[in-house]
Amino acid sequence: MIFCKKHSIASVLVLLCSVWMASSYAQDANRKSVAAPSAAPTIADNKVRNIDGVAAIVNTGYITRKEIDDRIVALQKQGAKVGDGAEFRKAVLERLIVEKIQMQNAEQEGIRVTNKELDKIIGDIAEKNKVNLADFRAKVIASGISYERYKESLREDVVLTRFREREVDARIKISDAEVDNFISERARAIAVKGGQPPRSTPGTSAGPEEIDIAQIFIPVDAGAGVSVQAEAKKKADALLLAARGDVDFMQLGAMAAKENPKIKFQELGYRTPDRLPQIFYDAVRNVGGGQTAKAVVKSPAGFHVLKVLDRRTLVAGGAPQQEAPPEVSQTPPQAIPITQTLSRHILLRTRADFTDQDAERRLQGYRDQVRAKTADFGELAKKYSEDGSAPNGGDLGWMSPGDLVPAFEQAMNRLQIGEVSNPVQSEFGWHLIQVMDRREGQLTIEKQRQFARAAIRERKYEQAYLDWIRELRDSATVKVLNAEDVATSPR
Asked: Is the whole-model pTM more than 0.70?
């Protein structure tokens, strides 16, 4: 199951590398150093500008204007909306700068990918694409880059992935108390049986406060142009306006996600202010329970619509003033009933000659055939799916909440038994999903703790990643020279 959260890191790397190859990033693998200017900075800058159209110096390395051009071309091949003018080029350059800084730090930390490891990864990619190595090599060359350059760029991508995982994971700390609190709140929610908990006003006492926040998140790519940013902001403002009315916030999020699978919605659970992203806390500092933030929150990842579901103040000993139902507080931990889903899917991955639009169009064709009963879903999966489940007709087995990546799970949960979804995009490609059956199961104590840790880690990951990137960027020496002009000479 390549899109399951259970998959190994190695599998993730292989898939990320496959996606990279498909997008044909023509990144510069040249790692030459540029000496820092000394006595005559103006003359040195002029000389640097003439070195193959350098756009920026990053510590002891550099980024060329040709690299910016190549990245924009790659984004266009992926079907991304590419903005016009200098502003978009600067956004792309900033992304390249961050990647360069990460690579430099990874090299300093001694993170390496041996030739043997690289050959194994390439072999796995070729196998996933159902071609032999000779044909795979030919496909790489046909995409417009040399095979050796592809290998070195692939090596860099794997190094960066390993470095990011190591550094960000080390920043995420999850205490047993957090796990216990997550399980307690989950049990409390089940005990309430969907009833609305009592609302409170913003805490005014000196005691510790916990805030339960829900969000609807509209992601925006860092390199998106002004028009894309404006469109996302407009959508966020509309959702905020709707959330102020007589509507269930989570249902509103579900409807938005149904219209656009990239939109995410979640309840963060009770958190003290220090466990909330600072921009979130600033937005809801004076917002009472049951109320929305006054404005949409903008982060580097996109736009957030926030609602305070509840606030509570902890008294001495850490117990909240709002008492949990007796059946929860007086009952020892026990297995929690859950709904498990049996589903199957067809996965298509994009590549240089097969865009997002191509994948979505092809899956729509398969969906129409299944709905018209002119084709069997399982047979289509065996023939066309690019997932390891293909030989079994795309069968994924029984899945519990949290076993699958959010985009897939949310789409699956909206389906009735026997229903086939519209094409769904996740970080692994495009899926067509069919729900075969559902059953009631139990989440054991051990499984609850595993699920709680995974859920808490997912909540913390985005902020930890953004903090890490910001620190790397702030600690680097970067000088932008000329990013506006396109390259005038080939490398």
From this structure: no
